[in-house]
């Protein structure tokens, strides 16, 4: 038992004491670092223009001994702080390394009051919150007009002003109904010490500057103002324009002559272009074709002249004639057959072209044939009796009969002649 007590209370060795002495400062520094809070942000401020809001602050980086630092920003409407319910802050920027936080996307109401707070985060430790009250209606600055234009109005100048815009590209008159503009204008001059500016206020977006000189350059700069909270913006960049007036007579004459010259040149160009296009189209669609020389010699008055030859009455009678084409008349040949007692027909008569017909009496025959040329009918001039037979001694020359008008509808016609009883055509 004593041995145990001696062992428990044995004095430490020299090596163990030196180790504890070296570890004490490290342990003390670690405990101090864990228990200490980082420094809080300083100079917390809100930069605002129209409805664009940005919370900014400063922070001493030497206090963190080069450790990484981040910042957290929260906001809440002020009326909720007095509520008996649990206060819930809205997050704006969480663990951001920047020393600013954009509040524009939060769409804060322009007439409300908000409480903003920010703190630093170092190695898992948080600093104290730093709060800032912010009311856009009273704290937000108003911006200059978004656009300014000038227009001549005779001897005056018209000024066209566009309202400053919100972050949603809406006119600031939606938030500030009593917004107006302070217009500053002066005569442009190279001598800056002799500038005499004049001003006027207007709540409308179009203003006519009075009492200006003709044909003189003037410059204009405009400022936005809101008197309820004594807000005013910076002036816009100066823009300049020359006024107009009555033109002198020599300028009118000069402009008139210049316009006539321009008109004449334009018409000349148009005519030349039209003629050139006409020539190209004509040569393309209707290329030149020359007549043969013997045609040209006949049509011209003389070989070396371009005058066309004129037709005289004699030449007309030679050149012009009337041609009538008539059909060839049909010639009908009628032959008188020989008597019945003739045994042998005349050898010149062709039996294949003779046609015979026996009527109801059966005593007489007739023969008809047609030729392409002339035809005739001629009786036998003399008869000779040989052995009780009668023969035609001579060759008959048939008599020609011309038919001028023959109707296709008529199928037969009766021709009565000497030696012919009837005939069918």
Automatic annotation (TrEMBL):
<feature type="compositionally biased region" description="Polar residues">
    <location>
        <begin position="359"/>
        <end position="372"/>
    </location>
</feature>
<dbReference type="Pfam" id="PF09294">
    <property type="entry name" value="Interfer-bind"/>
</dbReference>
<dbReference type="InterPro" id="IPR050650">
    <property type="entry name" value="Type-II_Cytokine-TF_Rcpt"/>
</dbReference>
<dbReference type="InterPro" id="IPR003961">
    <property type="entry name" value="FN3_dom"/>
</dbReference>
<protein>
    <submittedName>
        <fullName>Interferon alpha/beta receptor 1b-like</fullName>
    </submittedName>
</protein>
<dbReference type="GO" id="GO:0005886">
    <property type="term" value="C:plasma membrane"/>
</dbReference>
<keyword id="KW-1133">Transmembrane helix</keyword>
<keyword id="KW-0472">Membrane</keyword>
<dbReference type="InterPro" id="IPR013783">
    <property type="entry name" value="Ig-like_fold"/>
</dbReference>
<feature type="region of interest" description="Disordered">
    <location>
        <begin position="335"/>
        <end position="393"/>
    </location>
</feature>
<feature type="transmembrane region" description="Helical">
    <location>
        <begin position="249"/>
        <end position="278"/>
    </location>
</feature>
<feature type="compositionally biased region" description="Basic and acidic residues">
    <location>
        <begin position="344"/>
        <end position="358"/>
    </location>
</feature>
<dbReference type="InterPro" id="IPR015373">
    <property type="entry name" value="Interferon/interleukin_rcp_dom"/>
</dbReference>
<dbReference type="Pfam" id="PF01108">
    <property type="entry name" value="Tissue_fac"/>
</dbReference>
<keyword id="KW-0812">Transmembrane</keyword>
<dbReference type="InterPro" id="IPR036116">
    <property type="entry name" value="FN3_sf"/>
</dbReference>
<feature type="domain" description="Fibronectin type-III">
    <location>
        <begin position="153"/>
        <end position="246"/>
    </location>
</feature>
<dbReference type="GO" id="GO:0004904">
    <property type="term" value="F:interferon receptor activity"/>
</dbReference>
């Amino acid at each position: 038992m004593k041995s145990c007590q001696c062992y428990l209370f044995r004095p430490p060795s020299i090596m163990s004491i030196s180790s504890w002495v070296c570890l004490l400062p490290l342990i003390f520094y670690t405990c101090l670092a864990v228990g200490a809070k980082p420094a809080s942000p300083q100079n917390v401020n809100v930069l605002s223009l129209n409805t664009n809001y940005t919370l900014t602050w400063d922070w001493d980086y030497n206090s963190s001994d080069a450790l990484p630092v981040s910042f957290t920003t929260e906001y809440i409407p002020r009326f909720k702080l007095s509520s008996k319910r649990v206060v819930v802050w809205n997050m704006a920027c969480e663990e951001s390394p920047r020393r600013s936080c954009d509040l524009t996307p939060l769409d804060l109401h322009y007439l409300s009051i908000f409480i903003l707070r920010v703190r630093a985060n170092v190695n898992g430790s948080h600093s104290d919150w730093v709060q800032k009250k912010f009311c856009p209606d009273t704290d937000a600055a108003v911006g200059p007009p978004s656009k300014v234009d000038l227009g001549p109005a005779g001897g005056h100048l018209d000024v066209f002003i566009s309202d400053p815009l919100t972050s949603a590209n809406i006119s600031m008159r939606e938030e500030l109904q009593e917004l107006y503009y302070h217009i500053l204008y002066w005569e442009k001059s190279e001598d800056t010490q002799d500038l005499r500016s004049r001003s006027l206020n207007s709540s409308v977006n179009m203003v006519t500057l009075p009492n200006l000189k003709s044909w003189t350059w003037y410059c204009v700069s405009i400022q936005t103002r809101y008197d309820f909270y004594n807000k005013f913006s910076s002036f816009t960049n100066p823009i300049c324009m020359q006024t107009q007036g009555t033109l002198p007579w020599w300028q009118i004459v000069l402009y008139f002559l210049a316009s006539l010259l321009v008109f004449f040149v334009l018409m000349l160009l148009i005519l030349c272009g039209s003629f050139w296009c006409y020539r190209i189209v004509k040569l393309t669609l209707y290329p030149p074709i020359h007549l043969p020389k013997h045609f040209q010699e006949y049509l011209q008055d003389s070989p070396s002249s371009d005058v066309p030859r004129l037709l005289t009455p004699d030449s007309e009678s030679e050149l012009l004639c009337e041609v009538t084409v008539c059909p060839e008349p049909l010639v009908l040949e009628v032959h008188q057959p020989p008597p019945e007692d003739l045994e042998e027909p005349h050898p010149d008569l062709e039996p294949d072209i003779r046609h015979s017909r026996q009527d109801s009496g059966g005593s007489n025959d007739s023969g008809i044939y047609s030729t392409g040329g002339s035809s005739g009918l001629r009786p036998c001039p003399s008869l000779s009796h040989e052995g009780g037979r009668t023969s035609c001694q001579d060759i008959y020359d048939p008599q020609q009969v011309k038919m001028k008008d023959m109707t296709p509808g008529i199928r037969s016609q009766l021709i009565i002649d000497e030696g012919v009883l009837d005939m069918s055509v």
